[in-house]
Amino acid sequence: MGENKSMKNKIIVVSIFLALLITTVSTSGLKIQNNYQNENLNVNMNDDDDADLPIWNVGDSWTYECVINGGLEGFINLNNLKFSNMEFTVNEVQNDFYKMDMSADISGSVTVDIGVKISGSLRSTTIEGDVYVNKSSLSVEKVENLVMSGYIKPGIGPQIGFDVNGFATITYGKTLLEFPINRGDVWLVEDISVNVNASVEVGSLLSEQLDITIFIQEHSMKCEKWDNLDVEAGNFDALKLIQTDPYRLTEETHNVWFSPAAGNIVKVKSRGVPFSWGGWGYYDLDMELVSTTYEATSNIPNVPDKPSGPEVLDVGTKGTFESSATDPDGDILKLIFDWGDGEKTHSDFVQSGEQVTVNYTWTKTQDDPFIVKVKARDKYGKESSWSEELAVSVVNDAPEKPSTPDGPTAGRGGFFGKTYTYTTSTTDLNSHKIRYGWDWDGDKVVDQWTKLYESGETASASHKWTTKGTYDIRVKAKDEYNLESEWSDPLSVSMPKSKVSESSILQRLIEIFPNLELIFERIVNIIQDLE
Prior knowledge:
Number of helices: 3
Number of domains: 4
Structural class: mainly beta
Helix content: under 10%
Number of strands: 27
Largest sheet: 10 strands, antiparallel, barrel
Order of helices and strands: HEEEEEEEEEEEEEEEEEEEEEEEEEEEHH
Shape: flat
């Protein structure tokens, strides 16, 4: 029994240890290999220099928050294993490597099943070590002085302290991905092996030397596009690297966002990534940049030209606007259009000096013109000042006065009254869709709004008068941008009391037995159908 318990505790510790290494490797450099011809493959569709090789300096740091789930089915399961304050800081620049300090706080739990299932949650657990990153590929190749310590709290029993000390080496086999990375690039990520050698001590239950290797399965990747991301560290333009074919063992995906402005990965979202450790396992990984001290060396782009485009525009109508800007370093850049209504549009990245065309539609009007302005942002996040302003007046015409309602001018009102239908129509000079507001009691207050109709389409509405009387009914139109017409001319409608007596006794019965009203309504409907 004691040996079995020691084995369980060892597996829990090893699982946490490997989860950290999987997290580190999953965000590092990618290996290029032709899976079928055993030749190098690097298909470059464009040559935009989207992401150049960043240069890191001593003191540059990146802090992440990472959550990993998964494991070996029926054997090990990582449950919301969270690495908080996961910081990497450059403390030495060597000939081939950046030497980085790594540290993180770990929480969550691990479940193992080796005949008997046992779960343990982590308490006061930390990890630290020296990480060596290849300068030409930004891939992690080794981790030294790796120390993890903390406590495991099983479901039953007291918590147990543990310590792990060791090192890890990561082998990629072939050439690492080379910068620059460009949109359209495709490559194959070869199997990655991670060898771990460490001593494991779990309280007084276990003291053992660990020497294991895990493998992460190969798959194809593509640099798809630029995304604009909001992460905790701020707003970044980042290249989205996507998995283009399924793993052999899963249909899930692996997505990584690399930002030149951060000089590193800013986000990872992976699902069902396979790895091998005495059997095939899978993990889900979510990782996001929390903060960074990295700042790329780049000059601020020049101020863009004043935007050109229509100075008067109908609300709801698409307007086309253009501008351009140059970058003193010749970097690609994007233009950010401010439309003066709280909305902004980010263009795609283009070459320095290239004309940018964007479309925009205002969905509201205001008394003063909307002020349109543009600024430029290069791929390193450096922004220019705002351009000269373009004033755009967004106008709208009210729908025409609707036609006088058409329908019955006399009928039966009261409790046993009948429902009557009326129609009207009008047009909108801007061809906007229209809804109609009906006034059924003559007080020039809308009692009922219809759905939206096309300009010129006949609209209908139905009403039942529950009180006898004569009513001047009217209708007004409101376009889809809430500009209203004047009231139509009235139609006089006379609704005398129903032929069926509405005695006070009947009203009293309905008050006492509310369900009678439904019965009476059904009787009335049958009578109306017979008429």
